[in-house]
Amino acid sequence: MLPITIAQGYPRRDQFLALAAKAFAAEPLRIAQMLSELIGDYRAASQPLKEAIRLISHASDAFYNLAAAYAHLGEKENAIEWLKKAIQLDPPLASEARKDDDFRSLRSDPDFLALVQP
Question: Domain 13-116: which topology?
Answer without folding.
Answer: 1.25.40
